[in-house]
Amino acid sequence: MIGTEFLKGQGLGNQLFCYITARCIAKERGCAFGTAGQEQLAVNIHSKKGMYFMDLDLGERIPDEMVPGKEAGAAGAPAESGQPVSGPVLSGQPARRLRRYEEKELRIYQSTSFHDMEHGCYVAGADENLHSLPDDTLIYGNMQAESYFSRYRAEIREWLRVKPEYDTHEFTRDNLCILNVRGGEYAGNPELYLERRYWMHAMKNMRRIRKDMEFIIVTDDPEAARKLLPGLAVYHSDLDRDYVMLKNAVYLILSNSSFAFFPA
């Protein structure tokens, strides 16, 4: 079994990268797939409802006593909505511990940023060791290198299929471009927050494709988005609606946020 753990407070974009990468590595290695912390999926500062708009196959449910460094019942509080867990529970007599593997990372310390001076600028390429991990391993890290999952694009589309009752093409038009502006904690951090010039240049390039191109914003921070790009309509709704608007857009301008990667 190869799997990963959904961590408390982790954003949905990062969780989907961990889920997709671990599932693809398990498929590649011919191993069973499982997940720990299933009650934490899609539960964060943006939403407490859990993953209600997809039927994700989370694989085998890994109990706390099998997670390295955890004791039974130590995974944290369950989702406020009573998010159900899924999949058969892995069990053994006696219970076995899984191996923990941390994806390799590199941090560059540079004087152009207070954050990077203290913590280092996080840089992650592909960790080739993931492709040869032994059975019974949980993978931790950002896990965002495309080489981990690019060969399974068709399967990923099926895994991440949105339930029909949440899917909508209300904002799917040939002359409409959606800007996914990431605000929140990014808005107060100049090292992360994309400046107005980025968006203006991107919209200019879109108008080269279509002179009649129109623009709207989907964001987690409507107040910051209106200050950044006044005059554009701003949308922020439940998790499913924001996700589906990006998924079904004809044209997108993306930010440096993991949330939009898979719907895009």
From TrEMBL:
<feature type="compositionally biased region" description="Low complexity">
    <location>
        <begin position="70"/>
        <end position="82"/>
    </location>
</feature>
<protein>
    <submittedName>
        <fullName>Uncharacterized protein</fullName>
    </submittedName>
</protein>
<feature type="region of interest" description="Disordered">
    <location>
        <begin position="70"/>
        <end position="94"/>
    </location>
</feature>
